[in-house]
Design goal:
The protein has 448 residues and is α/β, with parallel strands linked by helices. It has two domains: 178 residues, 2-Layer Sandwich (Enolase-like, domain 1); 247 residues, TIM Barrel, CATH 3.20.20. The protein is built from 16 helices and twelve strands. Helix 11 links the parallel strand 7 and strand 8. Helix 2 packs across helix 5.
Length: 448
C-alpha cells in the first residue's frame, strides 16, 4: 500500500430542491424542478490526518430512469433511498487506497443495490444502472475531492504513480496493461473553453416566440442569449419523431445565430435527439434534408448525441456506420461501463460523451479507453449547478481532446448557482462564448 493511501472515515448526505426558471424537455417530458444530492465525506490518511470532501449531483431521474410505469416522485424516492444504501456502503468500507481503488471495489456492491427498493414495493423493473451511477457519483466525487484536499493539491494532480498504485490494466483489463491514468489526464485545466449553450425544444428562438416572459432579467430567447454571452456553440434538442419539425428547428436556430452574430463564421452545433429516433434511417434522412435546406447549418454540426434507444443489445442491427461517416455519433445514455463502450464501437459509434453524473472514477477510466481507441470526445452536463458544475467542467477541462463545455444550469436553474459566481468568475457567467476553466485549479475537485 502506498503511503498516500487513504480510507473513508465518515460520510453523510442530504438533499436540496430547486425549481427551474423555465421548463426543459427530456425525451418528451417537460421538467420544471430538480433535486440535488449533496454528500460530505471525510477522508483519513495513513498518518491520521483527515480532510472533508464534498460532492453534489442533480438526481436527474427523468433522464436516468425514463419509465411510463412509475411516476416522477416514485423514481425520485427510489433514487433517494438508493443514496442511503450507497452511503452505508461507503461508510462501512474499511479498505484503504486511492479513490479509484475504493470506488472500483465498491461499484459491484453499489449496483447490487438496484433490485432492493423495487422488490420492497412490488415493482416489475429494477432501478436502472444509469440511475444508480447518478446517485453514486456524488459519493465518488466527495471521495476524490477529499483525497485531493488531504494531499493539498487538485485531484487531477493525484493520478500519477505517487498516488495510484495500479496501472489501467487493473481496472480495464489486460488490453490496458502498463498504461497509466496520468498519461490520459491533463494535470492542469485548459484555461478557456467554448461553451455549448442548450437550445431546448421548448425554448423561444426569437421575440415572437416568447409567449410568457419570465421577467427576471435573464435573456428570454436565443437571440438575447447569443448577444449577452457572445455564444459560438449551440446544442439543439430535437424531437426524433417529427422529421419536418427537427429539420426546420435547426434551420431556424441557424438563422437566428447568423442574424445575432452575422460576422461569426465559427459556429458549431451539436444535435441531441434524446434517443427518440426509432431507427438510424431517421437520422440519415434528417442529415440529408438539413444539408439540402441549409448547407451552412449542416457544415456547422460538430457531432450528434446518441440518436436511438440506449439498450444497444436490444437492436444490434441499428448501427451507426453510415451516419458516422457523415458526422461523429457519440454514445451517451448507453455508456455505463467498458463493455458498453466496446459494443458501441462495434455498432459504428465514433465518439463518447462523458458525464460527471456517471462518476469521476468511471469517467476518467473510460476517457482513457476512448483516447486509446481514437474516439471523438465530449463532456455533457445534467443541468449541473454549483459544485456539480465545477465537477463537470473540471472533467471537460482535463480530458484531452474535449473541444467545448456545457453548462445548462445558468439557463434553467440560476437560483442554485447563487453565490458561486463571485467565487468562480467566468465559470457561472459566460463572456465571449467561453468559460474561464483556469479557475478550476483549487484543491480537490476545485470547488473550495
Amino acid at each position: 500500500m502506498l503511503p498516500t493511501a487513504a480510507r473513508v472515515a465518515d460520510v453523510s448526505h442530504d438533499f436540496a430542491d430547486y425549481r427551474y426558471r423555465t421548463p426543459i424537455k427530456f425525451g418528451g417530458v417537460a421538467l420544471d424542478r430538480v433535486t440535488l444530492l449533496n454528500v460530505t465525506l471525510t477522508v483519513e490518511g495513513r498518518d491520521g490526518r483527515t480532510a472533508d470532501g464534498f460532492g453534489s449531483m442533480p438526481l436527474g431521474n427523468v433522464w436516468a430512469w425514463p419509465t411510463r410505469a412509475l411516476t416522477y416522485d416514485q423514481t425520485l424516492d427510489a433514487m433517494k433511498w438508493t443514496a442511503s444504501r450507497v452511503a452505508l456502503l461507503y461508510g462501512s468500507f474499511r479498505g484503504a487506497g486511492h479513490p479509484l481503488d475504493i470506488t472500483h471495489a465498491l461499484e459491484p456492491h453499489v449496483l447490487a443495490e438496484r433490485d432492493l427498493y423495487p422488490r420492497l414495493h412490488g415493482w416489475a423493473e429494477p432501478v436502472p444502472v444509469l440511475a444508480v451511477l447518478v446517485v453514486a457519483s456524488a459519493f465518488d466525487a466527495a471521495l476524490h475531492d477529499g483525497y485531493g484536499k488531504l494531499h493539498g493539491r487538485n485531484c487531477y494532480r493525484t493520478y500519477g504513480p505517487e498516488f495510484v498504485e495500479h496501472d489501467l490494466g487493473h481496472y480495464l483489463g489486460s488490453e490496458f496493461a502498463s498504461d497509466r491514468l496520468d498519461g490520459y489526464v491533463s494535470p492542469d485545466p485548459q484555461p478557456r473553453m467554448p461553451l455549448y449553450h442548450l437550445v431546448g425544444a421548448l425554448d423561444p428562438l426569437t421575440p415572437a416566440d416568447v409567449a410568457n416572459p419570465v421577467g427576471d432579467g435573464l435573456p428570454e430567447h436565443l437571440g438575447e442569449w447569443i448577444a449577452r454571452e457572445g455564444l459560438t456553440h449551440l446544442k439543439v434538442k430535437l424531437d426524433g419523431d417529427d422529421l419536418g419539425w427537427d429539420v426546420d428547428r435547426v434551420v431556424r436556430v441557424n438563422a437566428v445565430a447568423e442574424e445575432a452574430r452575422p460576422a461569426e463564421t465559427g459556429w458549431h452545433y451539436s444535435l441531441d435527439f434524446n434517443e427518440r429516433c426509432k431507427k438510424v434511417g431517421y437520422l440519415l434522412d434528417f442529415l440529408r434534408q438539413l444539408r439540402d435546406r441549409s448547407p451552412a447549418a449542416y457544415d456547422r454540426v460538430q457531432y450528434i448525441e446518441q440518436p436511438t434507444a440506449r439498450d444497444l443489445r436490444a437492436d444490434r442491427g441499428n448501427v451507426m456506420h453510415e451516419a458516422a461517416r457523415l458526422k461523429p455519433v457519440v454514445i451517451d445514455e448507453s455508456l455505463v461501463d467498458l463493455d458498453s463502450l466496446k459494443l458501441a464501437r462495434e455498432m459504428g459509434y465514433t465518439g463518447v460523451a462523458f458525464k460527471a453524473c456517471k462518476g469521476q472514477t468511471q469517467s476518467l477510466l473510460l476517457a482513457a479507453a476512448a483516447q486509446k481507441y481514437g474516439l471523438f470526445r465530449c463532456v455533457q452536463d445534467l443541468t449541473c449547478v454549483g459544485a456539480s458544475l465545477i465537477h463537470s467542467a473540471g472533467l471537460a477541462a482535463h480530458i484531452p481532446g474535449v473541444a467545448a463545455i456545457e453548462s445548462n444550469g445558468r439557463q434553467y436553474c440560476p437560483a442554485a448557482n447563487a453565490g458561486w459566481d463571485d467565487r468562480f468568475p467566468g465559470v457561472f457567467t459566460i463572456r465571449d462564448g467561453v468559460m474561464n476553466t483556469a479557475a478550476l485549479a483549487g484543491p480537490g475537485l476545485g470547488a473550495v
